[in-house]
Design a protein that fits this description.
With 251 residues, the chain is an alpha/beta fold. Helix content is 29%, strand content 29%. Helix 2 packs across helix 3. It starts with a strand and ends with a helix.
Length: 251
Amino acid sequence: MAETLMRIEGPDNNGIYGILRADETPRDRLVVHLHGMTNHMNQLLEATSRDFFVAEGFDHYRISFYEFPKDSRKLSNSTLSTHARDIQVVLNYFKEAGYKQIFVTAHSLAALTMMISNPSGATAVSLWDPSTDVTNFWETNKCLTLHEDGDHYLMDYGSIFWLHKDMVEENKFYPHAKCQELVGRITTPSQMIAAEKGIFTFSAGIKPEDFVGKFGGPFELQKIAGANHTFSLEGNREALFAKTLSWFKKA
């Protein structure tokens, strides 16, 4: 199989960059992987996801919401809305390319974006430790400092990242309760996989069980004991991928 760095024309005169792992003759099934905030297409979760699903008979595409090329978006000018628009363009592209089934794995902030935007074109979705109340998380953990220019925040995740104020302000529209309301529109079969030591443990007063019975279509909640938010501990990813595959096989 070959890996191809692709540029897809974005909705705002931007290039959307990602890597497709596929045979010369594409398979019928594709997994589209959407990374979380500050990640990109070549980090551990993204690359090992590729290896697992390709071995299980899927083609695999992993996006970078922001990348090095000048026409790519940057984290500093990205928002939930830009993520949502790019996701829909990517799903449309691969549907037009002839894939009969398109499955989506979305981690962290990308999972939140899927929940609030409800894009069309996915056969089934797996939401990996979704960041359902980012403002709560940022405030609880004191992650943000407004820059003196007034237009950006410095986000402290150990390393310092540069966010536009629009990303911060837009997240305020989606507290945990609002997310529970919005998923009622989602009829696409959706799975949520929560890490025991993941995002829900770092935000006061929220839990993944709050979403049970709230989705508009088939839904299941799974948990992974001992897992962290990035699923980087021993055995985390194997459990994550196995639970995701089991859900996709039901579609």
